[in-house]
């Protein structure tokens, strides 16, 4: 019989004595889903699972809400892997995950696996393409991964990884996504040499670690497009020698960076500079001058007191469309030295600005400017009230529904009252 894609979702289970049933109870069909409220493998549960997976051509997902089984999790996986392509464990209860070398499995997902410490694959497996494990106790990359020859997606999330070696992935020729979202783990350094086996990597996520340094061999990921380094402890970063010819975005939110990473403007296809919630105090836009691929800059939530342009004349970012400088400590900005012909969105909210020039004249493509929660002078509000009335410029000092903390207000012709400083 021709096999079709079947997913088994195994919700919380208990070991227990066999429950005698007078006759097999069929599952509840919900479209392409087969739902069992309770399934007892000590009785006829395994037979019913096999029947559902093989003999109901309209069923693509089997959902077991309560599983009663005499089998350990690993044995259960062996039993159902011959006729199921995807298994989702809500809870996995064993220290070792044994992945069958020969099976129908293409996807394995473990949503909670606190006891899990390692993975075993006795021989090459040429079927499994996705392995996702959350909340495990795996502390290093299991060597058995070398036998997962077709693995394309590996996700180890919210775990206990202390060291990373990617040599076990050298045989995973299809691997294009490596996700290591490991909240509150112990990774502190990354060596570029770790990534040498992953020449086809397209997406790398090392967010929510404790990474302080990226050292050793320069990072070389010729196919990678997106890199996540969010919520680490990076204080400085030099990407001058990194080989990332296809990288579009590198996310560096919530680190300890005090300046823009050295050489970031030399990455040939990078379109986004994302550095919110770091420790920057001064940014020199001259460093970014002529960066033709750059479309978006986000420097929100830093400690910026100045955005400068060193040298003579203006600095040009010919394709920049969005600039976010919100939630800093800026008292003034020298907009006239910025040549941003395509700028369409400017955000300078939550600063200490008192005046605004005619932003829409300086930047002809500008559609919206947000300057809310700045102590703007009332004469600035009066001067640009037409932009405010047209909702092109947002300037309210107080949050909606809150009283003004400023010394005065200005009433627009529409009757709307704007907080300002006289």
Automatic annotation (TrEMBL):
In Swiss-Prot or TrEMBL terms, this protein is called Leucine rich immune protein (Coil-less)
Pfam families for this protein: LRR_1 (PF00560), LRR_8 (PF13855)
Q: Which SMART domains match?
A: LRR_TYP (SM00369)
Repeat is among the record's keywords: yes
Originating organism = Anopheles melas
Indicate yes or no for the key word Repeat: yes
Q: Which keywords does this Swiss-Prot/TrEMBL entry list?
A: Leucine-rich repeat, Repeat
